[in-house]
Amino acid sequence: MATLGLIEYKDASPEVRAVYDDILATRKTDYINNFWKSLANDPVTLRRTWEDIKQIMAAGALDALTKELIYVAVSVTNQCGYCIASRTASARNKGMTDDMFLELMAVAGMANETNRLSAGYQIQIDERYKV
Amino acid sequence: MATLGLIEYKDASPEVRAVYDDILATRKTDYINNFWKSLANDPVTLRRTWEDIKQIMAAGALDALTKELIYVAVSVTNQCGYCIASRTASARNKGMTDDMFLELMAVAGMANETNRLSAGYQIQIDERYKV
Amino acid sequence: MATLGLIEYKDASPEVRAVYDDILATRKTDYINNFWKSLANDPVTLRRTWEDIKQIMAAGALDALTKELIYVAVSVTNQCGYCIASRTASARNKGMTDDMFLELMAVAGMANETNRLSAGYQIQIDERYKV
Amino acid sequence: MATLGLIEYKDASPEVRAVYDDILATRKTDYINNFWKSLANDPVTLRRTWEDIKQIMAAGALDALTKELIYVAVSVTNQCGYCIASRTASARNKGMTDDMFLELMAVAGMANETNRLSAGYQIQIDERYKV
Amino acid sequence: MATLGLIEYKDASPEVRAVYDDILATRKTDYINNFWKSLANDPVTLRRTWEDIKQIMAAGALDALTKELIYVAVSVTNQCGYCIASRTASARNKGMTDDMFLELMAVAGMANETNRLSAGYQIQIDERYKV
Amino acid sequence: MATLGLIEYKDASPEVRAVYDDILATRKTDYINNFWKSLANDPVTLRRTWEDIKQIMAAGALDALTKELIYVAVSVTNQCGYCIASRTASARNKGMTDDMFLELMAVAGMANETNRLSAGYQIQIDERYKV
User: What is the ipTM, given to two decimal places?
Assistant: First the structure.
């Protein structure tokens, strides 16, 4: 199921279980997905990644749904099958409607196209855009 | 300045000028950037790309700023220098604050990281995420 | 099983079989994997790719295991499912422990994250790093 | 000018000079570009890469110009600035007209867009396309 | 079968069916593939994408087969499984022979390799290639 | 110099300065590079990223130099100009010789090539490699 297998809750060390508990509480769910069960083979990475994601994905200047949409757009650009599946589910969970999904795909597709037109035409940056 | 040069407004054919005029009117600006001046070497691609972008980037189920943020996230993932410069300017223009920019970067960076963890650990898609 | 099928040892031409024999001898294995069986549809590419890999992956200034780790990191970055599966097996074969794998993933993930932060913040290269 | 500098013809070892001479003769030019001058820091990689490229890029079932176009499309997809500049020049040299360039860009851009739509919509492969 | 499911011809709205009919007529086939059936969830994107592809992929300065080869090369570079499967079938349909396929792979592979050598060696663009 | 500018040590808040001090002490250097000066616009991301990198890049099951090599290989694959420049310098600092660099490039280039051959030939994963 994954290179080093999946660590189920019942088999987890107290250290891992503490992270699982925080995931369950923060996300108000009773399900730990395969991403976390895989990372649990490395408790330090598990904790670090979870703490980072919890902080980064929380509503701030950008709301939580907008962040999920950005996450999906990146995953789509990178062709990450697992991430597209799990983050699309997550985005829906946070309120992404079908219409939002369709527009998200359209923008991500278009950006990927114009990224290549810009590079291929060797377009230099306009003076006014320089930092 | 670009593989086939830039077509300035004063040198543009009526066909190209019509697109330029629509860009200026739609964006309420007096500036045509290098992207369009490059594409203008191919009036068919210029018109098609502009019509597509105008339709895709207009507010719909997602507001215009959210779409700009997604555009920047994709451009950052693809390492497109021109696109990052021009779309960051565009996003600011639509209301992206410094705090929004910083959170956008954090999410895009994190998604790029977990995309690789997911692939590298060879994590299979959870049954509940399958479509 | 692959676009042009897999060429098994018993069905291989003498030209292909010579490469297979060298793979088996060099790798001290009795197994030819699907990558080579696919390339065998093009004996010139098969030989060229094998000769290149044999030369490049042999211990030199970098030991063979370090090279395998680098190979996995690239494959993970590119989201190449076949390559991740086969090169992870290959790296284990050369001595990669679970702990090494976990650290490899952490570094590859982090590099992918900071690559985007660097691009997204449009950070210019420090004078001292310029070549 | 490059991480390990550029090796000019007059400073090259006989081993490197032999490759340079073959490049000059094969390409019917009197110019060695920075790519080869950089690789020359590693004569083994220089020779291997040149022999590979000479074999791969020669006219075969695909003509030499078509191969150049493919090379540019890949370079554009990867956002490789050096490669886009040098291979676009090379493609022009082999007969790429402005119109061909423009169509090449349009196809490369479109493919990059639909690659993401396909991944993002999680489209499963049609039975008839399976290998 | 896809995030929002597949829209079959019999269930399609007149708007979607009109696009399907044009695809069938233009491609002289009786098969609508999963890509279009997925996009059909968004009739505007379906029409736009089809009109774009029809225009871009039609023979012009580049013949239709060359365009298919470029499409495959981009899809291979991006690791898009669906696109590789469907566009390889499409290229064969337009006349790609096994030998052409093998050379296409060799060129795409080589370009991906040298793209990284160019970036990794930090090679600056030759004066004569600058635009 | 960067989207939100660079925060110099003398202008840094105590919070940022604390991170800078830890970077200087950990790396035994008197130089803060542009990456950190850019991130300093977001003290939370600065601290998180630095803590993560410090933990991940420290010698463990893999030595510090091997980790630097992996970092460079990923940056080269992603075509991140800033990262290639800064991490190549960093790897040299940790002991990467010219010969190691040349082999690193050869492996990264080859992996990028075979990643595409594997995807392009649609090679299915060998039973023995499945997890």
Answer: 0.97
